[in-house]
Amino acid sequence: MSDRELRILTSADVDKVLDSLDQRLAVDSQRAIFAAYSTQGDAEDIPGVRKLQLPLRHQLMSADQTMLIMPARVTGTMSCKIVSVPRAGSDGLPGSTIMMDEKTGKVKAIMNARKLTALRNAAGSVLSYQALAGGEQKPEHLVIFGSGTQADGHARAFLQTYPSINKVTVVARRSTPRSQELVKDIASHFPSVKVVEGVASYADGTSEGGFDLAKTVADADIICTMTSSTKALFPAAPVKKGAHMCLIGSYKPHMREVEDELVKRAGVVLVDSREACGHEAGELQGMSEDQLVELGEVVDVSTRDAAVKKVNGVGDVNIFKSVGLGVQDVAISAVVLAEAERLGLGTVVPDYD
């Protein structure tokens, strides 16, 4: 593309990219970005210019929406993601990412970002498991709490990465067309995997159809939570030794998806950002900085051994807590754009500027 062209990727274009995307590209992009974030380091040759820049998130509010504006920069790529959070009802979270050519300052792409957040979070979760498991684990049972885009992204990411997984349980508070469609979608893409829906609410002790929440949790090798719950989703006691949890849902101090007892069992928690999780993650309130290890410290070669030993050497379960970083969006958007260009997807506006 010339620097006068603009590529627009619709949700359908992004779907086509994701259907054929090698999951390793997504995970590798997050590995590099987390390592860069935690080493934070390095300035470029130009005084005052850092390789990685992550300004504060801004908000614009209306009667119906809260719009989150998240700019970020990694050497070679600048982007800004805008996500709308509705005050009532939900058709998902509308989002778009604007990508800039930092040499010319011109916009080079606009892409629908509804599924990109899920893609980057799922890649980060897979990376957290890879980094601590050391390539030796062969998980068989994946349990997912939630039925939205994040749930779909996590199911696909883990199933593509770990063919040993032969069962997926989707746990919802109630069976809905969305949760039923998620189960069908996972089953259609991975026909050799048993996919079931369980309806249960640990908060009020209800379940349907004979579903046993405690037994399901006890059998799980990996548990991923993607809800806006303010109460724990499942009991801590049945979780087996060696289980790995990816907590993605909570992003405010009053929100939580697991019991305090489970956090105590982990002892040290793996996080995407020590600073962000310390302020925002409800499950981690009251923990000291010394009890939090960043994923970037685990994957960076200079700090990996000590960081992995610290996380694995304390508790009998592992927890990865993520509230999301803007630089993750830069990395995953660059991967999706490169694949879209390779596949010839999107609408190219020839003389945008």
Describe this structure in words.
It comes from Cutaneotrichosporon cavernicola. Pfam families: OCD_Mu_crystall (PF02423). This is NAD(P)-binding protein. The protein has 353 residues and is an alpha/beta fold. The chain has 2 domains: 6-116 and 327-349, ornithine cyclodeaminase, domain 1 (2-Layer Sandwich), CATH 3.30.1780.10; 118-325, NAD(P)-binding Rossmann-like Domain (Rossmann fold). The protein is 35% helix and 24% strand. It contains 11 helices and 17 strands. It has helices at 11-20, 23-39, 116-133, 149-161, 177-189, 213-219, 260-266, 274-280, 295-299, 304-312, 326-343, and strands at residues 6-9, 52-53, 58-61, 65-74, 77-86, 95-101, 106-112, 141-145, 167-172, 194-201, 206-207, 222-225, 244-247, 269-271, 292-294, 318-321, 347-349. The strands form 2 sheets. The chain has a 9-stranded mixed sheet with strand order 11-10-9-8-12-13-16-14-15, sandwiched between helices. Strands 1, 2, 3, 4, 5, 6, 7 and 17 form an 8-stranded mixed sheet that branches. α3 packs across α11 and α4 packs parallel to α5. The longest helix has 18 residues, at 116-133. The protein starts with 5 loop residues before the first strand and ends with a strand. The model has no long low-confidence stretch (mean pLDDT 92).
